[in-house]
């Protein structure tokens, strides 16, 4: 069975990358782009999705609402407000959904995840295989080093990114805090300036770099006396994310309603 996938935010960086990943999936017989959705009133409405993505004509005309789309699974990499509305649509219409949007406020995230009561939903701050492997490595590093090491997370992204720290950096912080039974809301330090005082033992520091065309880089340092361990992931192509999201979309078919993540898809739990 070739899974029919709709993509919201089609004109965005991830929308176009998803088009490429779905073209590859169609050649492999696993999934295909069945609908490309843009914001109501967008000048891309009616254009050929393949041409817009720079892949050559594919016969899928871009539409400006989910109501006009035929699909089995929606992949949504947009912005929090759009994702909330798209998740509610999927829940009401019994469609599985893969969500990659980051930058949710806590109450928005809770609301978004309510769709998982009614349909299968896979949400991940990062769909690359490498970052999800890093989550497991971070659990091990935190278990072995966490009581002796200071933990700092540094991330870098392109100049267009609108949220900080990245969703991935926050997920890394959550994985480490959970492993060490610390409350991230209490121990996180988001940047430092001025007379900060000496570092408090249990804090987890976050620092953000923005510029150029950096696709996404994350380093977690475990800094102990006499040695340090650094776990780094560098994405050099958005296909690392979009191929993962397509894999998740195929994996969701036939699953029960529920909240899954990319570590479930990869069997890393
Ligand atoms: N989980 C993961 O693996 C990854 C997550 N991301 C996340 O995915 C999201 C998108 O990233 P990226 O593609 O770089 O961003 P872009 O800004 O390039 O694309 C976002 C798209 O969403 C559309 N959009 C935004 N708001 C609305 C709205 N209210 N209604 C309809 N459409 C809307 C935009 O349309 P318009 O152009 O008309 O505004 C645009 O097409 C971000 O949150 C990012 O952090 C990114 C990469 C990997
Ligand atoms: O906005 C991006 O580009 C990315 N966002 C995600 C995040 O916030 O972690 C994932 C990836 O690093 C790229």
UniProtKB/TrEMBL annotation:
<comment type="subunit">
    <text>Homotetramer.</text>
</comment>
<protein>
    <recommendedName>
        <fullName>4-hydroxy-tetrahydrodipicolinate reductase</fullName>
        <ecNumber>1.17.1.8</ecNumber>
    </recommendedName>
</protein>
<feature type="binding site">
    <location>
        <begin position="100"/>
        <end position="102"/>
    </location>
    <ligand>
        <name>NAD(+)</name>
    </ligand>
</feature>
<keyword id="KW-0520">NAD</keyword>
<dbReference type="Pfam" id="PF01113">
    <property type="entry name" value="DapB_N"/>
</dbReference>
<dbReference type="InterPro" id="IPR036291">
    <property type="entry name" value="NAD(P)-bd_dom_sf"/>
</dbReference>
<dbReference type="GO" id="GO:0008839">
    <property type="term" value="F:4-hydroxy-tetrahydrodipicolinate reductase"/>
</dbReference>
<feature type="binding site">
    <location>
        <begin position="167"/>
        <end position="168"/>
    </location>
    <ligand>
        <name>(S)-2,3,4,5-tetrahydrodipicolinate</name>
    </ligand>
</feature>
<dbReference type="InterPro" id="IPR022664">
    <property type="entry name" value="DapB_N_CS"/>
</dbReference>
<keyword id="KW-0457">Lysine biosynthesis</keyword>
<dbReference type="InterPro" id="IPR022663">
    <property type="entry name" value="DapB_C"/>
</dbReference>
<feature type="active site" description="Proton donor/acceptor">
    <location>
        <position position="157"/>
    </location>
</feature>
<feature type="active site" description="Proton donor">
    <location>
        <position position="161"/>
    </location>
</feature>
<feature type="domain" description="Dihydrodipicolinate reductase C-terminal">
    <location>
        <begin position="130"/>
        <end position="266"/>
    </location>
</feature>
<feature type="binding site">
    <location>
        <position position="158"/>
    </location>
    <ligand>
        <name>(S)-2,3,4,5-tetrahydrodipicolinate</name>
    </ligand>
</feature>
<comment type="similarity">
    <text>Belongs to the DapB family.</text>
</comment>
<dbReference type="InterPro" id="IPR000846">
    <property type="entry name" value="DapB_N"/>
</dbReference>
<keyword id="KW-0521">NADP</keyword>
<keyword id="KW-0560">Oxidoreductase</keyword>
<feature type="binding site">
    <location>
        <position position="39"/>
    </location>
    <ligand>
        <name>NADP(+)</name>
    </ligand>
</feature>
<keyword id="KW-0963">Cytoplasm</keyword>
<feature type="binding site">
    <location>
        <begin position="124"/>
        <end position="127"/>
    </location>
    <ligand>
        <name>NAD(+)</name>
    </ligand>
</feature>
<keyword id="KW-0220">Diaminopimelate biosynthesis</keyword>
<comment type="pathway">
    <text>Amino-acid biosynthesis; L-lysine biosynthesis via DAP pathway; (S)-tetrahydrodipicolinate from L-aspartate: step 4/4.</text>
</comment>
<dbReference type="InterPro" id="IPR023940">
    <property type="entry name" value="DHDPR_bac"/>
</dbReference>
<dbReference type="Pfam" id="PF05173">
    <property type="entry name" value="DapB_C"/>
</dbReference>
<feature type="binding site">
    <location>
        <begin position="9"/>
        <end position="14"/>
    </location>
    <ligand>
        <name>NAD(+)</name>
    </ligand>
</feature>
<keyword id="KW-0028">Amino-acid biosynthesis</keyword>
<feature type="domain" description="Dihydrodipicolinate reductase N-terminal">
    <location>
        <begin position="3"/>
        <end position="127"/>
    </location>
</feature>
<comment type="function">
    <text>Catalyzes the conversion of 4-hydroxy-tetrahydrodipicolinate (HTPA) to tetrahydrodipicolinate.</text>
</comment>
